[in-house]
């Protein structure tokens, strides 16, 4: 395919159709609409869309989420919450980027270092060396909260501290986890150059920690910062040790800066995540907090998870002519209908995802061979493209929904609908003007008929008066005239 590239006829037709609609004036004044992409339709890796202002991962959209946990899930991610590999997220798992870490549920926010809600608790943190006050000792570390830096304008980061931190938002979420004893997932990042326990590259999941104390103290840059003492309490050994068992309960280290600290918070009740002496492991000693995220109904995204500001819903179905035109340009080669969840093969043909999967249902790309009781090498099954003789077996597992083509089809359908709506409105206006003219002419005709009927009634009255036989005539009385001298 690389030596003999093919022209994508579908995109050529789409460009031609867009030019025709633009020249006809359809879609003028209509706002741009971005369609929500369901999780099952997202690619396996982060991707960029037409909304991206710049290139790179900073403007990329998250790929498919592989875990079934909500965003406010506390504690480890077990095998029952990870249907892809059926093993969960294990200590030592690494990811190449923050978006990839998000896909596996390690840390959901793509930018902020603390994942949590101030009235619910914190679920995870990332150690990336953002503050010079941080101290990393492996099994325990001192973590600095967020805030205190000027991020006005379009700033994403700022290393200069300009005001005091307070126990608000994410900082309050960590303090609530300290009071309740909730487990906290910790991910270390290779950007932390001051830590000896950071990975060489990417991000690494280092297990469950627990916030033991928190306080406020004057930091290196002269402003107060929120400080947290976090202690490891995981059933799996740390990635930097050769131990074969997990953590055992250990005493808290002595922290010198507590002598001059303020707003010290310590846990007064028994922790929710603690070591069970009977079972010899760390587990939930109290029921974990319930998720506050709204569940999705029928696969629809919740209102909080939608990041599309402008979105319209088709209120009227497309006209038959418009649908046939779109079906001709963007039709599936199997069902001959408008492409739904389109996938583009290596040979340049477009199919509905469900249609293409249904054609090869129950078939694998490889098959076993046996001869005389011996197992031979696997043989590749030929999966012929429904539209051409090319084999799809090599790229079968790389087929993903073509997001650009899907958005293009939705845009074309929307413009056709706007064009048909404008045409219907114009037709209705013309019909209403004709109705007004007909009404006015009918009113004038009715008025003329009434006038003519009144004239006829007046003439008939005169004729009836002349036909009276007896008419009584009375003599007129002489008028009294004023005497003048």
Automatic annotation (TrEMBL):
Query: Which InterPro entries did the record assign?
Result: PUA-like_sf (IPR015947), SRA-YDG_sf (IPR036987), SRA_YDG (IPR003105), UHRF1/2-like (IPR045134), Znf-RING_euk (IPR027370), Znf_RING (IPR001841), Znf_RING/FYVE/PHD (IPR013083), Znf_RING_CS (IPR017907)
EC class: transferase
Q: Which residues form the YDG domain?
A: 84-232
Where's it found, cell-wise? Answer: Nucleus
Provide this UniProt record's keywords sorted from A to Z.
Chromatin regulator, DNA-binding, Metal-binding, Nucleus, Transferase, Ubl conjugation pathway, Zinc, Zinc-finger
Alphabetized SUPFAM superfamilies for the sequence: PUA domain-like, RING/U-box
Nucleus recorded as keyword: yes
GO biological process per UniProt: negative regulation of gene expression via chromosomal CpG island methylation; protein ubiquitination
Q: Name one GO molecular function term.
A: zinc ion binding
Where are the residues of the annotated region Disordered? Answer: 286-306, 430-485
Top-level taxon in the UniProt lineage: Eukaryota
Descriptive protein name: RING-type E3 ubiquitin transferase
Give the organism the record lists: Gossypium barbadense
SMART domains noted in UniProt: RING (SM00184), SRA (SM00466)
Organism classification: Eukaryota, Viridiplantae, Streptophyta, Embryophyta, Tracheophyta
Query: Its Enzyme Commission number?
Result: 2.3.2.27
Q: Which GO terms describe its cellular component?
A: nucleus
What pathway does the annotation place this protein in? Answer: Protein modification; protein ubiquitination
Identify the residues that the record assigns to the RING-type domain, covering every copy. 332-388
Q: Which reaction does it catalyse?
A: S-ubiquitinyl-[E2 ubiquitin-conjugating enzyme]-L-cysteine + [acceptor protein]-L-lysine = [E2 ubiquitin-conjugating enzyme]-L-cysteine + N(6)-ubiquitinyl-[acceptor protein]-L-lysine
Does the keyword Nucleus feature in the UniProt annotation? yes
* Record's compositionally biased regions (Acidic residues): 461-471
